[in-house]
Amino acid sequence: MSEYDPQALQAKWQQRWEELEPFRAGEDAADTRERRYMLDMFPYPSGDLHMGHGEVFAIGDVVARYWFQRGYNVLHPIGWDSFGLPAENAAIKRNAHPAEWTYANIETQATSFRRYGISFDWSRRLHTSDPEYYRWNQWLFNRFFERGLAYRKGGLVNWCPNDQTVLANEQVVAGKCERCGADVIRRELTQWYFKITDYAERLLKDMEQLEGGWPERVLTMQRNWIGRSEGADVLFEIEGREEPVHVYTTRPDTLFGATFFVVAVDAALADEIVTDDRREEFEAYRAEVAKLSDIERLSTDKEKTGVFLGRHAINPVNGERIPVWAADYVLSDYGHGAIMAVPAHDQRDLDFALKFGLPVKVVVHTGLADPGETGEATPGEGSLVNSGPLDGLSKAEAIAKIIEILRAEGKGDASVNFRLRDWLLSRQRFWGTPIPIIHCLDCGEVPVPDDQLPVTLPDLRGEALAPKGVSPLASATDWVNVECPKCGGRAMRDTDTMDTFVDSSWYYLRYCSPGYTDGPFDVEQVRKWGPIDQYVGGVEHAVLHLLYSRFFTKVLHDMGMVDFTEPFLRLLNQGQVINGGKAMSKSLGNGVDLGQQIDAYGVDAVRLTMVFAGPPEDDIDWADVSPAASQKFLARAFRVMDDVASEPGVSFEGGDLELRKFTHRTIDEVTKLVESHRFNVAVARLMELTSAARKAIDSGPGAADPAVREAAEALAVMLSLVAPYTAEEGWERLGRTGTTVALAGWPVAEPALLVQDSVTCVVQVAGKVRDRLEVSPSISEDELRGLALGSDKVRAYLDGEPRKVIVRAPKLVNIVP
RNA sequence: GCCCCCGUAGCCCAAUGGCAGAGGCAAACCCCUUAAAAGGGUUGACGUGCGGGUUCGAAUCCCGCCGGGGGCACCA
């Protein structure tokens, strides 16, 4: 009998794993094992690992280790998402280079990961801030550029005043910077974009492949974000303007109800058509709107504002003159930046109409009161009125008919619109991938030739990195001033860096051939390993990383470099680790340190606590769980394995039948539970198995019975998914020396041992349990009915013939008196 | 405001149409012990947030509330 000492086990087995390297992915082309690709979202090296990492990686490792046990050839790599702002901010503060802070943190995390016992293939490690990684960002950028998928345009963009850089739409959450929480403002800037909108339809459609594999809420968030809608484009003449103006509407059936016309205040059209006598008022209004933060501007309960532009538009179907207004509730970058306003059937238009005394014309009879009276628009279905040829039609009929009319007259057509905007990828910061473009006065935007990549970062540090609204790269004049690759004339490098979400959009492909020098990845290796079978990470990337990565995968597919169209077949979103009902934070002083928890309870106890706390997608409140209790259980399980008195290899055949059945039933259940990601329940089953073995040793057939060994060995293997150190030591104590339990092979439940001799059948009278019968599992319905009706206990509740008898052999009979 | 998810024992959670409790925490008690710790064991719902409905049978399905969490929020 020996003590369970987690810290000693960690030291011992960590070293053994480093010698054995049990988790290296098989590279042999002749390897016929089925392959599996398991990936955890790679960490940002912000410091040491924290509790959140502890949870994700513990959960991901259950899946990876299960696959190892099943004998698959598993790819389970690790790397670091090591470009990004925190390193830059730290460098400014310490007058250092961002790389120093970054790579020191990476080493700290790597050491912690090794101690944490995650089954990584360390040979494939990568860091996105390595030139050998980011050169391929640049190479990919060039390919996107060639295909017209990377382009530069001017316009209003999201600007974070705190981080001093622009942001993509996806990185603005409720008007605030996704990173730092500052209020985002709008600025007019020329920036690089990826044309993700070209892929909107496919990004939406291909989600059908992910149905069932991804959490429904992530799919919903992406669908909402892409925001597909169907409607019509309608051409309106504007008096005094040559060209007609397009508007997009999802309700072309209400065209006869348009009583005014609104142009986005920041759209070029508004500036163009405002009449001279209205210009002063318009410009004052535009300046006022520009001052508002996104939060204020986009608030739905804000009162409508706007100005009349002095012009009229002509309704194409009835020739009515309707006034043209400018307002900030119409967005310049959606649809055509202008709308037809139908106040009777759109609440926003109605609010505007009532504020400015514009007419309200009902064209859909919904049976509800007049919106002009009530102030409540009636957007619902009904039959059309006051609409000439559409009168009497339903919404669907009217839409079909009006599109037909518009098309015939060349005044419009059916149209599809998306809420998704192009991905703004340039950033005015230092610690990222330089955009490989050279600006030449004569040749324009010239990509740096592939054979001159990577464009490495200039050596800037400390104060030189301080944000000043333009990229720090601009101050490195030696670096900036270059010859044009095309004409040899004087030219300048682009001084922006790429959004770090570019790095993470394809890293999963790089893992397939991390040292590859002829391209971002070896196409053959990606064919072998891709796509990812299981991805694990936080839900906060629902419309960020996960959307971008799907987009990249589709572009690479179109380039013929990958043969799949979706990168992540299954996605698991783990919850957060909180403490006392609140997110852990320094300011609240309620932080729990992963390293300290491990020092106090051991790696296995911490991992077990993470996995056992509840369903993986639920948050874990560390105040509700008990790593000390986890440690107790592990000690208990260890003692069971240590107490086994039979020799390894002994036949289990003659072992205690009751325990054998229990063991095999547990194997069967745990297998199903692990496969369906119900890890907390699987752990509960292992606790039961441990108790059953304990009981067999103490007050049953004894420690020498082969069934006890069978139970203990199954326990060691199954426990290895969650508590690898305890499992290894237990396995060794079981006499399985010189090997690792991680590759021992998943136990197989023998069907013969899953069969029950008898089951308890519940007999109910009017839904209440009145008797229990021990019956054969294969009993027939008729026989069971007879037994139930013959029971004295049952008959006491019956007078006369029952009205109905429901038999669900072999478990239940319900008698309706 | 709209949409989605969730409410089971003091707490974390099982049970997905068939006996409300698998597992854990906490609590109480018992065994072991000179004692304590460690270890082993025993004990818990009068009904699943509330009110209706469907069904032979509902935690589970449907409707309406209440409470919690999340997403979207001028996208025409």
Automatic annotation (TrEMBL):
Class of enzymatic activity (EC top level): ligase
Known EC number: 6.1.1.4
Domain Methionyl/Valyl/Leucyl/Isoleucyl-tRNA synthetase anticodon-binding: 658-781
Gene Ontology molecular function: any one: leucine-tRNA ligase activity
Short sequence motif 'HIGH' region: positions: 43-53
Chief location bin: cytoplasm
Ranges of residues in domain Aminoacyl-tRNA synthetase class Ia: 12-211, 420-621
Chain location of the short sequence motif 'KMSKS' region per the record: 583-587
Alphabetical UniProt keywords: Aminoacyl-tRNA synthetase, ATP-binding, Cytoplasm, Ligase, Nucleotide-binding, Protein biosynthesis
Pfam families documented for this protein: Anticodon_1, tRNA-synt_1, tRNA-synt_1_2
Residues annotated to bind ATP: K586
Compartments it resides in: Cytoplasm
Matching CDD domains: Anticodon_Ia_Leu_BEm, LeuRS_core
InterPro entries: aa-tRNA-synth_I_CS, aa-tRNA-synth_Ia, Leu-tRNA-ligase, Leu_tRNA-synth_edit, M/V/L/I-tRNA-synth_anticd-bd, Rossmann-like_a/b/a_fold, tRNAsynth_Ia_anticodon-bd, Val/Leu/Ile-tRNA-synth_edit
Highest taxon, organism lineage: Bacteria
Record domain Leucyl-tRNA synthetase editing: where: 223-406
Catalytic reaction(s) noted: tRNA(Leu) + L-leucine + ATP = L-leucyl-tRNA(Leu) + AMP + diphosphate
Membrane-spanning intervals of the chain: none
Protein name: Leucine--tRNA ligase
Provenance organism: Nonomuraea roseoviolacea subsp. carminata
Lineage of the organism: Bacteria, Bacillati, Actinomycetota, Actinomycetes, Streptosporangiales
Gene that produces this protein: leuS
